[in-house]
Amino acid sequence: MQNEQLATIAVLGGTGKEGGGLALRWAHKGHKVVIGSRTAERAREAAAQMNELLGGNNVTGAANAEAAAQGEIIVLAVPYAAQQSTVQEVAGALEGKILIDVTVPLVPPKVSRVQLPNGGSAVEAVQKMLGEGVRVVSAFQNISAHHLTKLDEDVECDVLVCADDTDAADQVVALAQEIGLRAWNAGPLCNSVVAEGLTSVLIALNRKYKVPGSGIRITGV
C-alpha cells in the first residue's frame, strides 16, 4: 500500500507518552501523522524528534485545532482533566470523521483505584457531546506507553475497541493491527467502561508486582 492511500492521523496530545507512542508507530508504518498540542511550537518540536528517529518526514506538528482539521482520523490522547475542553476546542473539525478516544478517567493521586465519572464511561460522554455526526471509538486505554516506543518488540496486550458504529470500530481494529497490536471489536461504546476501569487495575498490578506495563489478553476466540 502506498503512503497516499493511508489515512492522515492527527494525534491530539501527541507530545505525551501514550499519544506519542501511537503516533510513532503509525508514522513508522507510513501514515502521515499530525502531532497536536496546546502550542504549535511544542508540537513541531515533537514532530521533528520523531522524524529524526524514523529517518523520514511523515510527521508534522500543529496546534490542536489545526491538527484536527488536517486529520482524516483524529486520536484524542490527552489527560482526563483536559478531555472535554480539548473536544470542545476542536469540535468544528470533527464532523464526519472518526474520533478515537484513548482517555482514561484517572483521578490523581489514587490512579490505581477505578473512578469512573458518575459510574459511566468518559468516552461515551464525548459521543453525547459531539452528536451522531462524529463517530467516536474507544480504544488503546490499556496499552502501556512503555511498550509503544519499542518498535521492534511485540506488545503483549490486546486492544478492546468499542463503538456504536461497527464500521468505525472495524477501521480502528485494522489501525491497531497495522502497528502490531491484537485488537477486538468489543461491542457498543457503553462497554468502554470496562477498558477505562481496567487501566487502574493494570496500574495497581504494575505497582504490586514491580513491572513497567502489564496487559490483558482475550483467549478462546
Search tags:
alpha/beta; 8-stranded mixed β-sheet; 221 residues
Topology record:
Elements: E1 9-12, H1 17-28, E2 33-37, H2 40-54, E3 59-63, H3 64-70, E4 73-76, H4 83-90, E5 98-101, H5 122-130, E6 135-138, H6 145-148, E7 159-163, H7 166-178, E8 183-185, H8 192-209
Parallel strand pairs: 1-2, 1-4, 2-3, 4-5, 5-6, 7-8
Antiparallel strand pairs: 6-7
Short structural summary:
By secondary structure, this protein is of the alpha/beta class.
Notes on the protein architecture:
It is a single chain. The chain is an alpha/beta fold. The chain has one domain (3-209): 3-Layer(aba) Sandwich (Rossmann fold). The protein contains eight helices and eight strands. The protein has an eight-stranded mixed β-sheet, sandwiched between helices. Strand 7 (159-163), helix 7 and strand 8 (183-185) form a beta-alpha-beta unit. The radius of gyration is 16 Å and the shape is globular.
Question: Uncertain spans, ≥5 residues at pLDDT below 50?
Answer: none
Helix-residue proportion: 25-40%
Tally of helical segments: 8
Main sheet properties = 8 strands, mixed
User: What is the SS-derived class?
Assistant: alpha/beta
CATH topology: Rossmann fold
Q: List the helices and strands in order.
A: EHEHEHEHEHEHEHEH
What is the radius of gyration?
Answer: 16 Å
Gross morphology: globular
Strand content is 15-25%
Mean pLDDT: 95
CATH H level, superfamily name: NAD(P)-binding Rossmann-like Domain
CATH A-level architecture: 3-Layer(aba) Sandwich
Number of strands: 8
